[in-house]
Design a protein that fits this description.
This protein is of the alpha/beta class. It folds into two domains: 264 residues, Aldehyde Dehydrogenase, Chain A, domain 1 (3-Layer(aba) Sandwich), CATH 3.40.605; 196 residues, Aldehyde Dehydrogenase, Chain A, domain 2 (3-Layer(aba) Sandwich), CATH 3.40.309. It is built from 16 helices and 21 strands. Strands 1-2-7-6-5-8-9 form a seven-stranded mixed β-sheet, with helices on both faces. α3 packs across α6, α4 runs antiparallel to α7 and α10 packs across α11.
């Protein structure tokens, strides 16, 4: 397939990435960017940007013009060298930290999902996202000369931001992509476009003020089917960075262009009884409740050995989680999962209700008919291994707990629930053999032992954060190297001096 993405693949991308959690409809009949705004000038009546592209500080109505402007910005950044890249990284991190409270609130107000304290924390945590220090060259010398391998930029990267972590994802990508010497064009989720556009404008204003580059991180103000098509097909775009389900990944990988693909996840937890049950319960609560379970790495289902099951459930209650009874779980399940028109409850692929994704535990409890204390962070209950809450990535602050008779059964059930996505998994154990067995069986990109899932992104564990986790294409947690090409320079001669 050539670089032109066909209609059905584009529709997969739009439906799964841009429409998954709600927001504007992007049906083929909706307005194109050209129809959505006046043809002259930039947004809000701003003058046109330099170079003829109609935008201002990275914000565009026309995606094709954004790609052209980003190409110019890439060339300008190339002239600024490593010092220029470092300045961009410093600016983005400082801006996100300074605006964390305001931008966290704006994102929550626009999307109505997640928790304000964690949205603020995510933005402040971007200070430790890696930069150019990740791009150390590799050198060789021998009897026949020397060779130097360095990490070179692609140029302009097309990216899509989710509604779950709109500003943090974009900021992480700008840091990583700019550290590698690239410019970017973002097509935001329509349900979180306003906050992303605001942040992008502030980023570009600061970069322009310091470096004279106006459109390094371009964004489409009104994302549509046509705007994504324009980005994907633009001759300026050399790499795609996408996040979403199987349809999105398929579309990106068949686009004819190199793609960094972050696919779906449904992270399981195994508690084998050899470790501290109190700590395991605390970690499950913290990870599954983080931002109301919007994180793709977050604990989604727990398998516990029968011999310690009751003690683990008691520990969950002791540390503040609220247990639902069978009738309450049934009511919540009926509200949490809907089935496509014309298909019954036997449909193998139910759709998670947009009304409950990322909502507070109090909202879920009301639906379930339960009264819970103020400040409750997580709901939980015992379920069967084939329950919908186990099988589906539900992104709600409710977690199902499943009894298993052995470690072998627990690993087998965890592998089944993870669906071969190879995304994330967690184990609470002191038995290295159990850890190894689970790691081999699931082959996940992220595997956390004896900690909350967020430890995999440096929150309570070692490592660095990024909200683009390329599970499908294998790059893992994205960093500056993810967005580079390896180039080798060779000089042939007898150059050795020793």
């Amino acid at each position: 397939m050539n670089a032109a993405i066909n209609e059905s693949l584009i529709r997969d991308v739009v439906e799964e990435v841009l429409g998954r959690l709600g927001g504007a409809s992007l049906a083929a009949g909706n307005p194109t960017p050209a129809q959505a705004a006046p043809s002259g000038g930039g947004p809000e009546g701003m003058p046109a940007a330099s170079g003829g592209a109609r935008g201002r500080f990275g914000v565009f109505q026309d995606a094709s013009e954004a790609c052209v402007a980003a190409q110019e910005a890439f060339e300008q950044l190339s002239e600024k060298g490593v010092a220029g890249r470092n300045k961009v990284i410093q600016l983005i991190k400082e801006i996100c930290h300074a605006n964390a409270a305001e931008w966290g609130r704006l994102e929550l107000e626009e999307t109505r999902i997640g928790r304000l304290d964690h949205k603020i924390e995510k933005l402040k945590g971007l200070r430790v996202v890696p930069g150019v220090e990740f791009l150390n060259p590799f050198g060789l010398s021998g009897d026949h000369g020397i060779a130097l391998e360095e990490y070179a930029p692609f140029g302009v990267i097309g990216a899509v931001t989710p509604s779950t972590h709109s500003i943090p994802t974009m900021a992480c990508n700008v840091i990583s992509m700019a550290a590698a010497g690239n410019a970017a064009v973002f097509n935001p989720h329509p349900g979180a476009a306003k906050c992303a556009v605001k942040a992008a404008r502030v980023f570009n204003e600061a970069i322009h003020r310091e470096l004279g580059i106006e459109n390094l991180a371009c964004i489409v103000e009104t994302p549509t089917l046509e705007s994504f098509r324009a980005i994907a097909q633009s001759e300026q775009i050399r790499l795609l960075c996408v996040t979403g389900g199987p349809g999105v990944v398929k579309a990106a990988m068949q686009s004819g262009k190199r793609a960094v693909c972050a696919g779906p996840g449904n992270p399981p937890v195994l508690v084998d009884g050899t470790g501290c049950l109190e700590r395991a319960a605390q970690c499950v609560i913290f990870g599954a409740a983080y931002d109301n379970n919007l994180l793709c790495i977050g604990e989604k289902e727990v398998f516990v050995l029968d011999s310690v099951f009751d003690r683990f459930m008691a520990a969950m209650e002791k540390h503040g989680a609220v247990r639902l009874n069978e009738a309450q779980v049934e009511r919540l399940t009926k509200a949490a999962f809907v089935f496509p028109a014309g298909q019954g409850a036997g449909c193998p692929h139910p759709v998670v209700s947009r009304e409950l994704i990322g909502r507070d535990p109090a909202v879920l409890a009301k639906v379930a008919g339960a009264n819970i204390p103020s400040g409750t962070q997580l709901l939980f209950a015992e379920t069967s291994a084939d329950h919908l809450f186990v099988d589906e990535e539900q992104m709600m602050p409710f977690i199902p707990i499943v009894r298993v008779k052995s470690v072998e059964q627990g690993i087998a059930e965890a592998r089944k629930a993870e669906h071969g996505y190879r995304h994330s998994a967690i184990i609470h154990s002191r038995d290295v053999g159990h850890m190894t067995e689970m790691a081999r069986a699931l082959e996940t990109t992220l595997f956390v032992k004896n900690g909350a899932s967020v430890a995999g992104l440096g929150n309570g564990g070692e490592g660095y954060p990024n909200f683009s986790i390329a599970t499908t294409t294998g790059e893992g947690i994205c960093n500056p190297k993810t967005f580079t090409r390896v180039r080798r320079c060779v000089m042939v001669d007898n150059l050795r001096i020793f």
